[in-house]
Amino acid sequence: MRRRRKYLDQRQSDNHERWLVSYADFITLLFAFFVVMYALSSVSEGKYRVLSDSLGSAFGGRVLERIAPAAQSLPRDLPPRRIIQPADPQRMQREQMRGIAQDILRVLDSLVRDGQVKVTQSNRGISVEINASVLFASGQAQLRAESGRALQQVARVLATTEQGIQVEGYTDNAPISTSQFPSNWELSAARASSVVRLFIDNGVAVRRLSAIGYGPNRPVTSNDTPEGRARNRRVTVMILAETPGKAVDIPFAGAAPAR
Fold it and tell me: In DSSP terms, which residues pair with 120 in a beta bridge?
């Protein structure tokens, strides 16, 4: 009888302590739940999706349906994140134009060193100023063979870009009057057109090109000396920068307001 009572007392004692196992499991699950809630308040969307897929596969997709709304209402007292500013279009354009200028300097290196070619960059774009004596014989508009090879290298650089290209021809103030070129206007325009034709033949799109002849106008120095006149005889290749901004119609002062 005593043995049976002792057995019953021991069994009752075991039953009283069994709740501790369930309580410990519950506390562990609750701790894990709050850890997940905190993690959801700070992780990125990509990490949330990974966690969602993992928990969904483990619990049949029901846990995340309750967690997500609760996570959205949690306070987000997190340190401010660095805001990534959008790229500056004008800065990107300047860097792109600088790269084009460097490529042109590389292919015209020997002429630049001799002072026959000058490459500059401004808000308007890249200016490649070439002395006319390098490109043409006196009073002629046909490109020399050696200068044509140099311009072919330039054309290969420009063929890979998208900017507009304006070729400008200039002369000195010494008058010319031949059957082919009645004045310096025709000569300067014909020289600019010769360069444009070479660019087209070497892969530069026609829609990007234009030729302008300025004749003796817009000299860069005085025409009073032979050196000054030689400096003014030139061809300038302008790689035009894209101008940001939208065209706006200017209304006529006396026009009725639009309805």
Answer: 127
Whether the full predicted model's pTM is greater than 0.70, yes or no, is no
Local confidence band at 78 (pLDDT 50, 70, 90 cut-offs)? very low
Q: Which residues of 222-254 are buried (b: 16+ CB within 10 A; e: fewer)?
A: ebeeeeebebbbbbbbbbebeeeeeeeeeeeee
Q: Match 């709050």 to its residue by tokens.
A: 34
Residues 116, 134 contacting (CB under 8 angstroms):
yes
Name all contacts of 177-184 with Cβ < 8 Å and 24+ positions apart: 178/139, 181/139, 181/141, 183/215, 184/215, 184/216
**Inter-residue contact 211 to 104 (CB < 8 Å):** no
Domains of the chain: 20-78 (no CATH), 89-240 (3.30.1330.60)
